Amino acid sequence: MSIGLSVHIGLNQVDPEAYDGWSGELGACEQDAVDMAGLADAAGFDVTGPLLSPAATAETVTATLEAAAGRLAEGDILFLTYSGHGGQVPDLNHDETGDRLDETWVLYDRQLVDDELFELFGKFARGVRIWLLSDSCHSGTVARRLPEMLSPQELDRRFSTADPQEVGRRIRAMPQSVQAAVYRRDRDAYDRIQNTRTAKDLAKIDASVLEISGCQDNQTSADGIVNGLFTGTLLEVWRGGAFAGSYRGLHREVVKRMPPDQTPNFFQAGAPNSAFTRQRPFTI
């Protein structure tokens, strides 16, 4: 019988000492992780976490995924969700052919670079299915990006707004000014992360990775009062398990309900597995 493991990460804040005084406050990311963990538990997954804010450190996330890789074999599935800020650092190993920037998950104590995430995926056995939901900015793919639609000034304005009527437009992106300050201060550490890793080669991942993300690479994801816009819409489509379609069908239905400036993406990497995409979501 196949095994299903799930890991759920949600950060409503980060450690200001790690981010040049910025606390990265958001409203709905922890609830996203809690709701995804509840959904996974109801579907029969063995749930880790959720890892919320202070618990969502780079060391803990890395160790949790390494432990999952050690447990799962061909035919098993990992369900991984992230809800929080997205960030960027300069690409040093030339695996980003567009904007020369690597995307990151903004974890509590530091950013987890996408190179690190793909290296972790590379530790899973052939035949393992990895389903990733990432409700953050710049989350369309973890392999390539398009030019920014929003200026640095607009990114900062949308994040820092205090107007209650603007909360729904608050975005899950680290402000450009903070990104620059953090990279200047911690450049040696982030450069070392990339310099010790080869450029991403998705063909070398033996597992089959399927990602449904909160937006395209050149878009931003909105926070919310209860859930993020993407996560809340996905839960609405899922309807407590009444949804009977495939992963592709789930993506199509979510896209139909989203605004034009936030279009969830469907992305695959690793070993091709067409049967995976046709399965009903949460199938172990």
Summarize the SSE layout with pairings.
Elements: E1 4-10, H1 29-42, E2 46-52, H2 58-71, E3 77-83, E4 86-90, E5 101-106, E6 111-113, H3 114-121, E7 129-135, H4 152-160, H5 176-195, E8 208-213, H6 229-238, H7 247-257, E9 266-270, H8 274-278
Parallel strand pairs: 1-2, 1-3, 3-7, 7-8
Antiparallel strand pairs: 4-5, 5-6, 8-9
Domain Peptidase C14 caspase: 17-268
Organism: Streptomyces asiaticus subsp. ignotus
Pfam families: Peptidase_C14
Radius of gyration from CA coordinates: 17 Å
Structural class assignment: alpha/beta
The shape, in one word, is globular
| Strand order, largest beta sheet | 2-1-3-7-8-9
How many helical stretches?
8
The biggest sheet, with number of strands, parallel, antiparallel or mixed sense and barrel status, is: 6 strands, mixed
Write down how many β-strands occur, each being a DSSP E stretch of 2 or more residues: 9
Mean pLDDT: 85
* Elements, N to C (H/E): EHEHEEEEHEHHEHHEH
Q: What proportion of the residues is helical, as a percent range?
A: 25-40%
Beta-strand percent range: 15-25%
